[in-house]
UniProtKB/TrEMBL annotation:
It comes from the Eukaryota. Residues 38-75 are annotated as: Disordered. Residues 126-333 form the Aminoglycoside phosphotransferase domain. SUPFAM superfamilies: Protein kinase-like (PK-like) (SSF56112). CDD domains: APH_ChoK_like. The lineage of its organism: Eukaryota, Viridiplantae, Streptophyta, Embryophyta, Tracheophyta. It comes from Carpinus fangiana. This is Aminoglycoside phosphotransferase domain-containing protein.
């Protein structure tokens, strides 16, 4: 159980080093935190101790008052008695301007220097830091080392070590079979070490309440806690209780209705789960939380949901998310013992949480499959279209290697992709000029998101789109692109001209932000860095492309290929050039004259 030592003090814009219970404070500053570029590895660093030291000795019930004119509010400060007092406390005002290596995470992640990571937010709890500390001391699992953890008011902060690594989804497609086996072997060993740690309760780490999506959708009481429970039977009843409270609509009490029967069936399925061992569990072991270093050492992050749960829980929580590629779900069974029946029963609960009220009624859209006298799963065929979100983004490409710091005009395109940090594919709309005469519009419905020419990142125009809105954006872009009047001539315009007009069109249709068309019009002819920096200064979302997928063996020049896998950029052989350009264009059968 987390025990906290609480005191109240004024927090000026400094880092604090807390040396004793009565809070002797040593002031150290972040060195120019707002100089972070968010590009590459140039981040602000934690400075050394200032030579000047200010000490204030106080009683626990009193406050340290500031004498500065621009005083900041008091903060309630607490920390875990298991981890002890943190070596310093970060000024919250400095963190937003530090480098963010994981922009898709729902909480704050910042790197004040290349060796330190800070995770913070209202949903960040001290028990996550305690779990990481436990893992680092009792297993050989590679995970971040906890430097310090504390609460300021109701916001949690975990300061941890950091080494550069990449999400498993980013390296899997490029890894050799030997390298893949090395990753799987490490994961199998990690999971085995966790499962060898047995529990005498079910719940979050440190005998805390359960931490999982299944318990966090309470419309009636957001502060309600579930668990910890003495055994699996109590855990099952907790799940059923959580199910009863997730919907703002009244529960169907008519025993003759299909909806009532569905809820009854799910409850009985959950109660049928018995006789499982209670083991230490990560609870969110999907590809985004599995990082791989350059030497293929595997690092596990995000221990927020760690605790002691039935032995099937790890497999279920690792498989319910859409894998970054369909075949990877079979890889999961190689390093986590498979519990297919239990996992499919538990999917009932997750679908119950995520689907609309009308989906609770069994009709022709639903299908039940029976296997071994147990229901394996209930799948709503429209589930994917209703639950996935999409984003419209401007993609910025590069012509040179990442190490070469340039700000040259770059190729741009508009992509529609899943609303995730690293989508596998996108629907790409762009204008390109294969013949150095006139630009063509090209639509790539399944373009790999990370490909040559080097993708540097994306500027998100609008996120959270439904499938219908994403399809509408596709249709509008196709209509706009196939109108010849929108296609510039070589030398009198470029891909950026086309993009600016397309974004303005999307803005008018409500599929881009206000003034986005004007911004991209003003960006015509500017370099990639200028576009990126300007977008971020507007407070808009920029997402870097993983560096492992940006690297290329040499400078590249628009390596877009045709169906025969031949370059369609600069061609040495001019014999078939005209025919191939004509086939690519599809818009006109003759080249324009000077009168055009």
């Amino acid at each position: 159980m987390i025990e906290t030592v609480t005191t109240t003090f004024h927090l000026p814009p400094y880092l604090y080093s807390i040396n004793n219970l009565v809070c002797t404070l040593h002031f150290i500053r972040l060195r120019n935190p707002r100089s972070s570029t968010i590009r590459g590895t140039t981040h602000s660093r934690l400075s050394n101790m200032d030579s000047a030291t200010t000490s204030t000795t106080r009683q626990p019930s009193s406050k340290v008052q500031s004498t500065t004119e621009n005083s900041q509010p008091d903060y309630q400060f607490s920390y875990s008695s298991i981890l002890g007092k943190p070596p310093y406390v970060l000024d919250p005002a400095d963190l937003p301007d530090c480098y963010n290596p994981f922009p898709s995470k729902p909480y704050g992640i910042r790197a004040p220097d290349e060796n330190t990571l800070v995770k913070y937010g209202k949903f960040v709890k001290l028990q996550e830091a305690e779990a990481m500390d436990f893992v680092s001391k009792h297993t050989t699992i590679a995970c971040p080392k906890v430097i310090g953890a504390y609460m300021l008011d109701d916001v949690g902060y975990i300061v941890m070590s950091w080494e550069e690594a990449f999400p498993l989804s980013a390296i899997w497609g490029k890894a050799s079979e030997t390298e893949k086996e090395k990753v799987i072997d490490q994961l199998r060993d990690y999971v085995l070490q966790m499962r060898n740690i047995k529990g005498d309760y079910v719940g979050g780490f440190g005998r805390m309440p359960c931490v999982a999506d299944e318990f966090n959708w309470d419309y009636h009481d957001h502060n309600r806690k579930y668990g910890p429970y003495d055994n699996e039977a109590g855990f099952n009843e907790g799940l059923i209780s959580a199910l009863d409270r997730i919907s703002p609509w009244p529960r169907n009490e008519d025993p003759e209705s299909p909806g009532y029967n569905l809820e009854f069936t799910i409850s009985e399925l959950v109660r049928s789960l018995k006789n499982h061992e209670i083991v230490f569990t990560h609870g969110d072991l999907h590809a985004a939380n599995i990082l791989v270093k350059n030497d293929f050492t595997v690092v596990i992050i995000d221990w927020a949901t760690a605790g002691f749960y039935p032995e099937y829980w790890e497999f279920y929580k690792a498989t319910w998310r859409d894998p970054f590629q369909p075949s990877f779900i079979r890889q999961i069974a190689k390093f986590i013992p498979a519990f297919w029946i239990e996992a499919n029963i538990m999917e009932q609960i997750h679908r119950r949480i995520s689907e609309l009220p009308c989906a609770f009624i069994l009709d022709h859209r639903c299908c039940l499959n029976l296997y071994l006298d147990r229901i394996l799963f209930l799948s709503w065929k429209d589930h994917e279209n209703l639950t996935k979100a999409y984003t419209v983004s401007v993609l910025l490409y590069g012509r040179t290697l990442l190490e070469q710091d340039d700000d040259l005009p770059c190729h741009v395109g508009i992509a529609i992709h899943e609303d995730v940090n690293e989508p596998n594919t996108c629907r790409l709309h762009h204008a390109r000029c294969p013949n150095q005469i006139r630009f063509i519009y090209e639509f790539r419905p399944e373009q790999p998101y990370c490909t040559d020419p080097i993708l540097r990142g994306r500027c998100e125009l609008r996120s959270g789109l439904s499938r219908a809105e994403a399809d509408r954006a596709d249709s509008l872009l196709a209509k706009y692109g196939n109108e010849q009047e929108h296609l510039p001539f070589y030398g009198a315009g470029n891909c950026q001209n086309w993009l600016a007009g397309a974004v303005a069109m999307l803005e008018e249709a409500g599929l881009a932000g206000q003034q986005d068309g004007q911004y991209w019009t003003e960006s015509i002819g500017k370099g990639r860095e200028t576009m990126e920096d300007g977008w971020k200064k507007r407070g808009r979302c920029w997402v870097d492309n993983p560096k492992s997928l940006q690297a290329a063996p040499e400078n590249v020049d628009a390596r877009w290929r045709d169906k025969e896998e031949r370059n369609v950029g600069k061609l040495d052989n001019g014999v078939d050039f005209g025919k191939r350009v004509e086939a690519l264009e599809g818009l006109f059968n003759k080249r324009p004259t000077t009168d055009d």
